[in-house]
Amino acid sequence: MSLNQRPSHGGYDNVAAVRWELLIVLTVTYGASGLRAILRLIDATLSSTKLNEQTATLNAQQSPTPWLDPLLQISSSGVLFAWGGLAVLLLLRHVPLRTNLAPRTVWRMRSKDWLFGAGLAAIIGLPGLLFYFTALHLGLTKQVVPSGLDDNVWQLPLLILNSWANGFAEEIIVVAWLGTRLRQLRVPWPWVFFFSALLRGSYHLYQGYSAGVGNIVMGLFYLWYWKKTGRVWPLIIAHGLIDSVAFVGYTMLGGIPG
Questions:
Q1: Dihedral of CA 165/240/108/191: which sign?
Q2: Domain limits of the chain?
Q3: How many CA atoms lie within 13 A of 253 on its CB side?
Q4: What is the DSSP annotation of 96-157?
Q5: 11 touches 94 (CB < 8 A)
Q6: Is 85 in a helix, a strand, or coil?
Q7: DSSP label at 29?
Q8: How far apart are CA 258 and CA 171, in angstroms?
Q9: Which residues pair with 208 in a beta bridge?
């Protein structure tokens, strides 16, 4: 069925519907996050305090009340899981199972996905850490504080939950969903790489310029992997592992000075 044809049953594959879906989902999710991050970076740059003397807390406390903050943290993670779930639902319900425009995303998890995910985490995570400390020294990023949560029994489970919520939402929306939808609109692959990577970089800019650049590189690599394999679980696993190690490691070491 052509994208310009209206289907005779149930789903929708026409150009207008795909464009509206892109606009609405990105506005609700990472498009809006990217815009806010850009504005926050502008505000930080205009500040009299040097960028590398400012801090960006990734898991900030949401309430001083001991029993209420965990509930707010869980609800925030739940929103991320819901974002990813919405993208999965849209892809499964409204995208043909076979297409020569984009790889068919494989949703079934395999045991070897954990091995590939760990490998991807090492490829991205270790150079990323070196890049962060170099950028911090050059004044191109804020001091990133992985956790601002209270030291209590809830801290580590909440950090791990948020790590995997981030991975689930980002890799499904920014890679599998966005890549599939753009290809449905006949967007050439170089532009798909550009838009996906730029989106990923944009919503990390609140941390500093280097965070945007580093995540653009990460986005290009992850989209290439999905294009070649059609598999999204190794990307989710890699992202979850990177964030878990960063969040939990920072907490267990009692914070790493910038």
A1: positive
A2: 15-252
A3: 11
A4: -S--SSS---B-S--THHHHHHHHHHHHHHHHHHHHHHHHHHHT-B-EEES----SSTTHHH
A5: yes
A6: helix
A7: T
A8: 29
A9: 141
Question: Which residues face 56 on adjacent strands?
Answer: 144
Distance from the first to the final alpha carbon of the chain: 55
Rounded to whole angstroms, how far apart are CA atoms 252 and 71?
Answer: 22
Beta pairing partners, 57: 145
Q: Extract the tokens encoding 94.
A: 């409204």
Q: Is 141 left (phi over 0), alpha (psi -120 to 50) or beta?
A: beta
One-letter amino acid for residue 178 of the chain: L
195/235 Cα distance (integer angstroms): 18
10 pLDDT more than 90 = no
Quick one: which of 147, 126, 110 has its CA closest to 236? Answer: 110
Give the span between the Cα atoms of 155 and 57, in whole angstroms: 15
Question: Given pLDDT bands bounded at 50, 70 and 90, which one contains residue 255?
Answer: low
Distance separating alpha carbons of residues 168 and 29, to the nearest angstrom: 13
- The 10s digit of each residue's pLDDT in 94-144 is 755 456 788 888 899 999 999 999 999 999 988 988 989 899 888 989 998
Residue 172 CB contacts under 8 Å (≥ 6 apart), including other chains? 84, 87, 88, 232, 236
The DSSP call for residue 6 is: P
- Partners of 59 in beta bridges: none
Percent of residues in the chain assigned helix, strand, coil, to nearest 5: 70, 5, 30
Backbone φ and ψ of 143, nearest 5°: -75, 110
Per-residue H/E/C for 9-22: CCCCCCHHHHHHHH
**Short-list 10, 254, 26, 3, CA closest to 147:** 254
Average pLDDT over residues 239-243: 96
